[in-house]
Amino acid sequence: MDLGLRDRCCVITGSTGGIGRATAQLLAEEGARVVTCGRGEAPGVGEALHVRADLGRPGEPERVVAEAGEVDVLVNNVGLAVQRDLVAVTDVEWDEVWQLNVMSYLRAIRAVLPAMRERGKGVIVNVASTSGKRPSTSMPDYSVTKAAVLSLSRLVADLYGGDGIRSNAVAPGPTATAAWLDEGALADQQAVRTGKTREEVLEAVAKGRPLGRLAQPEEIANVVAFLCSDRASYVTGAAWSADGGTVPIII
């Protein structure tokens, strides 16, 4: 299916791995001019440009947009999630997560809006989380920031729909990426918190979905790509769940 993205400039933040990388690869296969960015090396998925940037720092999302040129599609995907207790999260940790998970999105959106409004068209897709719809008690700061992303997505849709700009969010559930599967990542963190083994944690998380498994990053990328495309030309202000049928269970 032709998504109508050929030659469109698509910026995907946090695209050196996981959902962002899968999205970048899919959009490149659709013929888009893909700009990847993040703290790591270029993902090598057919991107036209890679910009190394620490997106949690003021000025960095704006620099990425400036280097990309005329942006047709912005996919905000970068994020940080850590398992911890609400009362134990320090102000510094709250600010770190807020800067990356919310402010990087806002800064990138502010950077692309003027040109999109002038052209009378543009697409913004923000990767949120089911934790933004139902908070995860083991990821309080992450959950609050993802709820903010859902609100920001709807706000942009309401404010700029008349300028031809569509803004939507995607809310994935647990996905088989480094964020969950790497050593010391969420599965291991949750194992420590609950006294379960890593395997028991992943099994429980999978069973918490009607589909009985974690998502693959490509499955989330498919939803993002659709929302980026002309096939979704009448879709804005939406928060699309891609979570296997349910929000995460609390364990």
Top keywords for this entry?
251 residues; alpha/beta
SSE topology sketch:
Layout: E1 9-12, H1 18-29, E2 33-38, E3 49-52, H2 60-68, E4 73-76, H3 91-119, E5 122-127, H4 140-160, E6 165-172, H5 178-181, H6 186-194, H7 198-207, H8 217-228, E7 239-242
Parallel strand pairs: 1-2, 1-4, 2-3, 4-5, 5-6, 6-7
Helix pairs in contact: 1-8, 2-3, 3-4, 6-7
Q: Structural class per helix/strand content?
A: alpha/beta
User: How many extended strands?
Assistant: 7
Characterize the quaternary organization of these chains. single chain
H-E string: EHEEHEHEHEHHHHE
Largest sheet: 7 strands, parallel
Global Rg: 17 Å
Number of helices: 8
Percentage of residues in helical conformation:
40-55%
Q: Give the end-to-end Cα distance, rounded to a whole number of Å.
A: 40 Å
Report strand order across the widest sheet. 3-2-1-4-5-6-7
Mean pLDDT: 95
Instruction: Give the overall form.
Output: globular
| Low-confidence residue ranges | none
How much β-strand is present in the residues?
Answer: 5-15%
